[in-house]
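SAMPLE LOG
Freezer: B-3
Tube label: C17
Construct: single chain, 186 aa
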Amino acid sequence: MISGLPERIFLCGFMGAGKSVIGRKLAKELELSFLDLDDKIEEQAGQSIPEIFEESGESAFRVAERRALQEVIKEFEGVVSLGGGSLQNQYIVDHLKLNGLLIFIEAPISVILDRISQDDNRPLLLDEHGNPKSKKKLENELTALYEERLPLYEQAVIQIQNDGKKSVEDIVEKLLKKIRNHVEYY
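STRUCTURE (predicted):
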């Protein structure tokens, strides 16, 4: 256990960056609870994320996401894996940094595409008719979205690379060193 840890550690990054897998392992190593914000949203809504997107659209999902995030900040202590679009604006970034340690898990688009292309629970992978988008179209859209979100992600206090080659254990070990250095310095 690292002394002086904040009550919450928020993991941000693009979909498929490994936030949930890394978050679970990090929480275990720190002997903390783990929460995936997407699970919290589904629990509160009584629907899966694809169902929320299909029935109510992305804007309704983002409202539900903000509501769940506010509740997590008030009631949860531990490691929180945020959704890829949770950092919607500067206010949310600032609020998270005031209420915990924000960590950016960065992964290349090529790795992200490989990881998410077979996942049926990713609404952004489908066109308006519910059919899978072509790989090129998907790559172009995801790259544009990633570049749009990057300035918010990069405001995290700690950043770590997940290039798809290192094991989760290696990434978490490196992350623990960065967290320890941060907590000791501040």
